[in-house]
Amino acid sequence: MQYSKNKELQVSALTKIYVWSVLFEPLLYFVILPQNITGIGANISRLFQLIVIFSLFFKVLLTMKIKFSSPFSSLNNTFAYYYIYIILIGIIGYLVGSYSYFQIEQVANDENFFSLFVNSYHFRPFFEYFIALYYFVYFVVLAQYMLTKKEAIDYFFKWFNLLFLICIFVGFIDLLLVVLFNPEYYGLSRHIADTQYPGNRFHGIAGEPRDAFVYLILCIGILTIRDIWEDKKKLTLFWILLILIATFLTQSFSGVLGLIFTIGLLLVFFIRKLTFKKQVLLLIVFLITILFVYLNVMYSIRMLKYYDAISLAYFNLSNGLELESVLIASRNNIFPVWALWLEVQEFNFFHLFFGNGLGSSSVINNFYFNYSGVINPNASIVRMLYETGIIGIFLFIFIFISPLKKLSIDYKIYTKLKLLMLIMLGLYFSHRNPAPYIFFGIILAVFHYKLIGKNSNSKNEI
């Protein structure tokens, strides 16, 4: 599918800005203001998102026309049911005291009034419900309204591919220079807004190494959709191996956990419906993945430290001892699970199955940390288990896999997309990231055009 400048000119300016907001969302090197200033962190993507939102708002005011996507349509209803569920759980959590743990009013010296308000335990839980809705609407629903032309979808894939190549090139060059010239050269920082250096680990322009791990797997997913869209095979074995090598070099513990979660998801949602031959092939993939995880752990000093510390974590918590030093930075992921475990020991299973409400994991962390502010778990599986329970986790998974059946696509393509989506969700559970939303939004945009858009002359573009 040859792309030309003439075709690019047919893409509206607002659509281009929307595309760039999606492209930059997972590239966290471009965080330009920290959370203590803005309350939510600010990267270049957020600036583009503001432009898109205000432009759409003023367009509605000028034309007095607005298009709504039904929350109970075949592609959106699973999210609607999930959102109703988490609102009900939040109300119950408020009534039973999940948001009422003792809080101290400790103010950080580098936080301004706006940041303090956004991150306060009075306001933040409400804001979490807005964030949950916003991510789905902006990256999933809006993608189907903005990317309605063939030229717009081509534009997205063209620039996504270029940014992927830049990330790979910069990442390997940066890592090579760190290995050769450290300590004279420390490498790229995690973000533009700070000066913390990840060390001799691959990360490129994707932020921290754990963010780079997720971004690289997202690239496999997006480039796979590009091949389906263009009916070509550009994502060759060479590129897949190169991406896997880069993920290995991130030395990301959360990435390894994400692969473990992925295996669990595939066993529950995928392997049972395959033919015996494909089950054998997938079993081989599992074994290769387990080997990859083993090598990543056993041949990385950093990973071995995590392995040893986790084996002692239960003993230390049970006896009121401090966690091992390597786990100090992961306490925000440990304390919510520990709080649930203490309830289960008393045969109280309600919160394990139904959760405490969005934002409550930060509240329980505030209690254990004796600090007032946003201390959310990095691992989404921990956050979701504490806030929405086991039932909420399953509802969340169905948001992304149930609609794939309704796209009327070839079974082989459906199987491939479902596999990739479960991988995205596995990584999401280990480290909170926008990958499932972006991947899902692009899937719907591409197949909406294939099934509907090309027959309607793209009259719905915003």
Describe what you observe in this structure.
The chain is mostly helical and 462 residues long. It is built from 20 helices and two strands. The longest helix is centred in the middle third of the chain and has 32 residues, at 150-181.
Distance between the termini: 24 Å
Poorly predicted regions: 457-462
In the sheet with the most strands, the strands line up as: 1-2
The secondary-structure class comes to: mainly alpha
Question: What is the radius of gyration?
Answer: 22 Å
Structure summary:
This protein is mainly alpha-helical and 462 residues long. The protein contains 20 helices and 2 strands. Residues 457-462 have low confidence and may be disordered.
Identify the notable features of this structure and list them briefly.
462 residues; mainly alpha; two-stranded antiparallel sheet; globular; disordered C terminus
Topology readout:
Elements: H1 5-9, H2 13-24, E1 31-33, H3 35-38, E2 42-43, H4 44-63, H5 77-96, H6 113-118, H7 124-146, H8 150-181, H9 209-230, H10 237-249, H11 253-269, H12 276-298, H13 301-318, H14 331-345, H15 350-354, H16 360-369, H17 380-387, H18 389-401, H19 411-430, H20 435-451
Antiparallel strand pairs: 1-2
Helix pairs in contact: 2-4, 2-8, 5-7, 5-18, 7-20, 8-9, 9-10, 9-19, 9-20, 11-12, 11-19, 14-16, 14-17, 17-18, 19-20
